[in-house]
Structures are given as structure tokens and as C-alpha cells.
Amino acid sequence: MNAIMVKIFDTLAKVGLDKLERALIFGAVLVTVLALAVGAVEMSQLWFAFLFRWLHVVSGVMWIGLLWYFNFVQIPSMPKIPDEHKPAITKVIAPTALFWFRWAALSTVVTGLLVAIMNGYILNALILGIGTGGRDTYIGIGMWMGLIMAYNVWMIIWPNQRKVLGMVEASAEEKKAAARTAMLASRFNTMFSIPMLYFMVAAQNVP
User: Fold this and answer.
1) At what angle do helices 172-202 and 135-152 cross, to 10 degrees?
2) Phi and psi, residue 2, nearest 5°
3) Could you tell me the pTM of the whole model?
4) Contact 67, 190 (CB under 8 A)
């Protein structure tokens, strides 16, 4: 089995699978072909609502995946990295990760709001299901937690990380304070991500 998979990888590499953009294009083509083949595409309002829900999930995977990468991998690993090697993180890896991190957060929010609008529960969710309860309350809790987390990404984590990474002028003391603020906001978002994901998933199982 391993030998077969390696041969498949080698064959795909010849047509550019080793490049990220090609892998993404191939993935988009694959999902389109498979969806059409099994009849999972129907040009209707219901299908477009599903399409944006799928995009919402994809964006959320990118956002929370990078949030957890920062908190489970990068931040705990930084003290263990020799000083001469740290620029590889701060000058190359972190700026790229933060780019996808913040835009994935925005995409998650936008697609989530579009799903709520297209399915007609945006208002009930925003008021936490007052008067309706059930699914609206669950999705509303998850939605508000996600909105607070996205605010932290754009208004607290990113501005402070720009100081830490030297993208804007800042003194050594300002960088130190900014690093702590960004870290605490990131920890807050990690804490929030646990109940946020719970309520977002639980909402699918509530009448």
C-alpha cells in the first residue's frame, strides 16, 4: 500500500502537486468532479447555503488550526530555540502564519454570517435565541464567541504582533509589552475556542 501511494505522489508531483497553489487547484477540481458525479450539486438557495456553510467550515479549520499551532507549538517552542535561529520564526514563519490566521478569521466570520442570513436565523442567533431557544441559543453563543475572537485577532493580536515582528516602530519595552498582550489575547482565544466549537457543533443536533 505504501509503495502504491508513493507512486501516486510521484506521478502527481510531475504535474505540479509539489506546489501549494497546484494542490489547492487540484483539490477544488476534485471536489467539483466528485460532487457532480454523485449529484451533490444543485443550483438552489438551499445548495448555496450549504456551499457557504462548507466554506465557513474550511475557513474555521484554517483559523482555529493556526490558533492552536501558535499556542500548542510556536509559543511553547520559542524559549527552546537558540537565539541565532529565532529570526527564522519571527522573520519568515510567523508573518506568513499570521497572514493566513487573520484572513481565515475574517473569512470564517463573513461566511458564518452569510450562512445565518441565508438560513434566516441571523437575528434570533444574535439575540441568543430569546423567545425561541434551542438551536438559536446554541448557535448564538458560538457566534458571539467567534465574533469576540475575531475582534481579538484584528484589533489586539495583529496590531501588537506588528510591533513584536518589527513591522512598525516600537521600543524594546513596547515590544515586550506588545508580546505579552498578543500572547494573552491568543490564550484567551484558545480558551474561547473550546466552548465556541462545542456550541457550533451542538447546534446541529438541537431542534
Assistant:
1) 170
2) -60, -40
3) 0.90
4) yes
Tell me which residue has cell 482555529: 64
Residue carrying C-alpha cell 506588545: 178
Nearest 10 degrees: Cα torsion 16, 20, 23, 28: -130
**Rounded (10°) CA dihedral 159, 110, 58, 14:** -80
pLDDT, tens only, 103-153: 999 999 999 999 999 999 999 999 999 988 899 999 999 999 999 999 999
Domain layout of the chain by residue ranges: 1-41, 43-205
The Cα angle at residue 61 between residues 186 and 22, in degrees rounded to 5: 120
Alpha helices in the chain (DSSP H): 2-14, 20-37, 45-69, 75-77, 86-87, 94-118, 122-126, 135-152, 158-164, 172-202
Residue-wise pLDDT for 144-184, tens only, equals: 999 999 999 999 999 999 999 999 999 999 999 999 999 99
Residue from 164, 160, 17 nearest 90 by CA: 164
